[in-house]
Amino acid sequence: MVMKKFKNSSHNVREIIVNKKVFYDFFIKKIFECGIELKGWEVKSIRQKKINIVGSYIIFYANNIYLFGSTIFPISTITDSGICETKRNRKLLLHRKEIVFLYNESKQNRYTIVPISLIWKSNWCKLKIGLAKGKNKKDKRDKEKCANWKKEQSHIFKKIKLTC
């Protein structure tokens, strides 16, 4: 009996960069995975992890969706720096139904669309984007208080186990 190898297995997915600030500033409702339109030098720079997506966001323009505010730094082997636009709008590749869904959610329910992470998925560079709602200061404090309490709780239980 021959075992089949699946193309979409989990070992083919490698994270390039994660925008950790998104999870601190937003509640993520739903996550989408989309392709990103890149030039050759950009792919080489991404392979060396010379990219920054913190502070970038998603905009709609002419029935398409674009990544705005991300920076890809050129690598040193590229001689002509005139062709390297480090801050340009990069088109995201999604199905039409997904674009319409995201547009409606952002306009009607006032959700924000933010980039979460950049991954390699079997030699394709993909961007994970999330449908998000902003957190206020109270939400951030409550989350921090809960995390501190869990840490303290585990410390107390360790002490109890040592004495018994």
Automatic annotation (TrEMBL):
The chain crosses the membrane at residues 54-75. It comes from the Bacteria. Gene3D superfamilies: 2.40.280.10. HAMAP family: SmpB. SUPFAM superfamilies: Small protein B (SmpB). The lineage of its organism: Bacteria, Pseudomonadati, Pseudomonadota, Gammaproteobacteria, Enterobacterales. Pfam families: SmpB (PF01668). GO terms for biological process: trans-translation; trans-translation-dependent protein tagging. GO terms for molecular function: RNA binding. This is SsrA-binding protein. GO terms for cellular component: cytosol. It is found in: Cytoplasm. Keywords: Cytoplasm, Membrane, RNA-binding, Transmembrane, Transmembrane helix. Required for rescue of stalled ribosomes mediated by trans-translation. Binds to transfer-messenger RNA (tmRNA), required for stable association of tmRNA with ribosomes. tmRNA and SmpB together mimic tRNA shape, replacing the anticodon stem-loop with SmpB. tmRNA is encoded by the ssrA gene; the 2 termini fold to resemble tRNA(Ala) and it encodes a 'tag peptide', a short internal open reading frame. During trans-translation Ala-aminoacylated tmRNA acts like a tRNA, entering the A-site of stalled ribosomes, displacing the stalled mRNA. Belongs to the SmpB family.
